[in-house]
Amino acid sequence: MKQVIVSFFIVVLGVFVSASSQAGTTEVALKPIKVDRSLDSLRRGAQVVFDTCMRCHSLRYITYRDLLDMGLSKDEVDALRGDRGMGEYLQTTMPPAAAKFHFGMLPPDLSLMAKARKNGPSYIYTLLTSYEEMSNGKIDNPVFPGIRMPDILNVTVETAPEERAVVEQKARDVVAFLEWAADPRAQERRELGAYVLAYLVILTALLYWRKRKIWSRLDDA
Amino acid sequence: MAGRIIDWIDQRFPLTKFIKHELTEYPTPRNLSYWWNFGSLAGIVLVIQIVSGIFLAMHYKPDALMAFDSVEHIMRNVNYGWLIRYMHSTGASAFFIVIYIHMARTLFYGSYRAPRELMWWTGQVLLLMLMATAFMGYLLPWGQMSYWGAQVITSLFGATPFIGDDVVRWLRGDFVVGDATLTRFFALHYLFPFLIVGMVVIHLVALHMVKSSNPSGINLADKDNIPFHPYYTIKDLFGFGVFFIVFAYFVFYSPNTFIEADNYEPANPLKTPPHIVPEWYFLPFYAILRAIPDLLGGVVAMGVSVVIFALMPFLDRSKIPGGAKYRPIYRIMFALFVIDILVLSYVGLKPPSGTLVIVGQVATFVYFALFTLLPFISRWEERWLRKKGLPPEVEELIRQEEEEAAKRGRRA
Is the ipTM value over 0.95, yes or no? Predict the structure, then answer.
């Protein structure tokens, strides 16, 4: 009977896991990517975000000081911030009125984008790299039709394989930076988690051993 | 010295007596399986939620303009704020998993039967309180799914005849979910856990009156009992250890499994998400709501689907002990019920479409049919099994149970 019950709960778990992983995969086929969490990738990503994304987008939960925590040096941060204060958040240079005029809306804040979409990193990567020239000569993103964001990484222009490789690397770096921005404490979390899990496994093993020991008293009776 | 202090206390407060009666001499069946760990696990999850919740409340701002930012502030700037917050959000799901398994155990082994009806009913009240607390807590991060989930669920009360709109406005404190709703949900979300603690005490007092059920379904009152301490204190602690390993895995390595991506977007009353889903633990009931084409009918069906569990002591009329152990038909019904819940969860998760609507309606029908048919099936099953010939010791147990019940009847 026990096995029947156990297998039921395994099925329960299985259904929930498969159901929740299907929940977000709408019609859009995302290109799955593995995020490169190295400091080099984060540094390059920050540069691309500053040079291109932040012309329109802000990251209102990230300050320049946070970039120091991310691993950039004081000089690197100073170069990025210019005369803005260390405690200021990463704000776009585009005035809201201009954004409204050009796009009809305020471009969304990017701080949480890697978490605010299902499979956030793949979503961002797919979005950035899927621009195409349509048959009518207009540039659109068939994966996200009608998107108002222009082909900022020049996917449609730089079509030669080596150029394309550079563009895709840029997109990966942007993803790395935005994933960091969405959860700057993630690295700390994963590091601490290893210790916590190791502690819990040892503790639980000891408790099990104690339990066996205590319950063995009943065998004599 | 310590002995004298304890003597001093014992003359004024029954400390030693209490410890003896409720722990070191409290009789517990020695044959409890690990399915009996889930009650104490629910207790430890309640503690996690209250402690992490109190620390969250020190940094959270229940204000429509600040709530979302304050959660991000906790996640980014408060020392170990991310840990407290992820423990709390993961803890909510853990609570429901533990409680649902606890309930499934009760249903499978028939632990709701006399004399444990009050255990089952106080548990039912605890489930409702837990659901209310979870629902109100889900609004607090003030994300898109928080907002629209609350909008949808509060609007259900609009199905109340005649005064529907007033009830909805009264609940929200406004015409739509807004700042007034957020502040009152926060106040109640902070209050309810303490009411739950009170109800848990009642649940435990009832438990210590009737004692634990056990997998055999046999009343072990005097035979084969062992003291709770140290046997079950250590077994429960080991259970905590296993639980915390799984819990910590989710908190540290997959904390967003139980958080809808949409909820990392601030609440926007002007932008309805394309597909509003409740948290996973409400999905079966949500599917029942949607299965009925009429709003009032749907709301009533959903309400009934939650509280119908309370009727189990009346619906199950079999006298055969051991829950599903000696009862092949009941075992099949239990299995069907679990499968049905899974189907309903899946239907609740997906946007309604042609076939899924029908699947949802069939599953809803099966859900209620299982409860409705139980009185007849359980009676018939008992007669069939006794005619086929039960082992003499089981017949003997039934006779003893009947005597016990008669004695209880006389006392009352």
Answer: no
